[in-house]
Amino acid sequence: MAPASRPHVLVVDDDPSIHEALAAALGHLYVVHAAATGDEACAILGSQPIAAIILDAILRDEHGLDLVERFRALAPLPILLLTGHSSEDLAIRALRAKVDDYLKKPPALTELYAALARLVPRTGGGQGIEVLIDKN
To answer: Which CATH superfamily does the domain covering 3-135 fall into?
Structure first.
């Protein structure tokens, strides 16, 4: 997929290794932006054509779910919650925050690709994301 036609996704996670892993896994399909805090994420949302957000549930100084309303006030985008701390309470809180999808860390690549394919609208022309996923 040509760089100009790749959708942009924002990864909000305070762990640089997660940024690197997701950029490596998704870079052939998406332009991947990274933020470690809510403030950094908001700055990127204001300056880039983000199509979806991949949000860590637990950040260093803030809870990812506390950022959902703030992000949606800037841009009504789909949000995929990633967590290494899954619990029934977190799942209920995620539903109440109206996140669009929820995956446990580390996600299987096929699950991650499928979740983003559901959340990110395809652009016209070329192969759809679903076709690219089937080849991997």
So the answer is: Response regulator (3.40.50.2300)
Q: CA-to-CA distance for 93 and 71, rounded, in angstroms?
A: 16
How far is the C-alpha of 52 from the C-alpha of 38, rounded, in Å? 15
How far apart, in whole angstroms, are the C-alpha atoms of residue 50 and residue 132? 20
Residues 6+ apart with CB under 8 A from 53: 9, 10, 12, 41, 45, 71, 77, 78, 79, 80
Per-residue pLDDT tens over the stretch 15-51: 999 999 999 999 999 999 999 999 999 999 999 999 9
Q: What is the pTM of this model?
A: 0.85
Q: In what order do the strands lie in the sheet with 50-56?
A: 31-35, 8-12, 50-56, 79-83, 101-104
